[in-house]
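@channel sequence for tomorrow's demo:
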Amino acid sequence: MAQPGTGPAVDNNMTMSIVSIFLFWPLAIPAIINASKVNTLLSQGDVAGAQAAAAESKKWSKLAIIIGIVWYAAVVLCCAVGGLSMLGLGATANT
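structure tokens (generated this afternoon):
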């Protein structure tokens, strides 16, 4: 058993969790919560718990980033199509 405060380093994925909050915040919240648990669990000597919390944080962050990117791409696409259709309607109405 590892001594509290020592042992393998586990990436808490806090940076990815913070980035994901700008893309899709509802899923970024559990990512940040799990990322904040990692260092506490490591300091208590619970390496398996820290690894599980890090994996959960990474999962929620990835989902938030993927959904956020797809959402923003859909919004840009809809705005572009809407703008182009408005240009097309204006051109046919003037002729």
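heads up for whoever presents: Residues 14-93 form one domain.
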